[in-house]
Specification:
With about 300 residues, the protein is mainly α. Helix content is about 45%, strand content about 0%. Helix 1 runs antiparallel to helix 2 and helix 3 runs antiparallel to helix 4.
């Protein structure tokens, strides 16, 4: 680059000047190529249509010529003329079908993208409506449509962490594998619910009703079980790491505690004493010395 704004050619020592006009020309060429791509696409569509029309005339012209040569004076009778028109219409219909089929094939990618976007938007709308139902019923008794709303959110893979379901009546709700981390479920009714594999880490379960609920493999680390009702619940394989308030559990009779993981020190003895069952208690029940009160407890 020389002081006067020119650049020297590496081959012959000549100078050339870089000006804004050159960059403008480059931009124009880029725009021209983009327009050319669009124009070429349009020309392709029109070319397919022209090809169909050309094929129609190409197929009918020999037919017309043959019939005219076979007719005296080169004049076609009305019947032959109608037949030529019918043949022409058939060829045009075939061309239109081919043209439509091509457009259908060419737009397949756009249709797939549109369908995927529509499905995604439908999930967003469904989740929004479900949260509206849950939030509007917060702090109220009864279901209030929350059983179905929770099921929809779970089906769409939405986390329920931090949700407030205090006092909600959700008997028999299906929430296997749900994420309920740090949720508030005080005095909620989850009797006979399917909560297998659910994550209740840090959840507030004070006074919750889990009678007959399926908690197989549930993760209850740090959950508060004060005054919880767990009678006839299935806790097989549940993780009880650092659960609190377990000595104040309201009832746990006939609950299955087979293979619970990381139970607090003294929990198994407490649960068995309250009527929970596992392999050890089943062996004890087979012993004739077991008292009547140990076999039958109030749920």
């Amino acid at each position: 680059m020389t002081p006067d704004g020119t650049r020297e050619s590496p081959t012959d020592g000549r100078h050339w000047i870089v000006t804004p006009t050159m960059f403008a020309g480059t931009a124009n060429r880029i725009t021209f190529h983009a327009n050319m791509s669009t124009t070429m696409g349009r020309r392709w569509n029109w070319g397919v249509l022209a090809l169909g029309i050309g094929a129609a005339f190409g197929l009918t012209t020999p037919l017309v010529a043959a019939q005219m040569s076979a007719t005296s004076g080169g004049i076609l009778p009305w019947a032959d003329r109608l037949q030529v028109i019918v043949n022409l219409m058939k060829v045009i219909e075939l061309g239109a079908f081919v043209f439509s089929a091509y457009h259908f094939w060419a737009g397949r990618r756009e249709r797939r993208t549109s369908d995927a976007e529509a499905a995604r938007q439908a999930r967003i709308d469904a989740n929004y409506q479900a949260w509206q139902v849950i939030n509007s019923a917060q702090g109220k008794g009864g279901s209030g449509g929350r059983v179905e709303a929770l099921g929809d959110l779970l089906k769409n893979g939405v986390s329920l962490a931090g949700i407030n379901l205090d006092d909600a009546w959700l008997e028999g709700v299906e929430l296997p594998g749900a994420t309920l981390v740090r949720s508030s479920l005080q005095r909620a009714h989850f009797s006979s619910a399917n909560l297998a594999g659910a994550n209740f880490e840090g959840a507030d379960l004070q006074g919750i009703d889990l009678v007959g609920a399926n908690l197989t493999g549930a993760y209850l680390k740090g959950a508060n079980l004060t005054e919880a009702r767990l009678s006839a619940a299935i806790l097989d394989g549940a993780d009880l790491t650092d659960v609190v308030g377990w000595r104040a559990i309201r009832s746990i009779s006939h609950a299955s505690i087979e293979g619970v993981r990381h139970p607090p020190l003294g929990f198994l003895g407490f649960a068995r004493g309250e009527g929970a069952v596992d392999a050890i208690t089943k062996t004890m029940m087979d012993n004739d010395d077991v008292s009547f009160s140990q076999n039958f407890r109030t749920i």
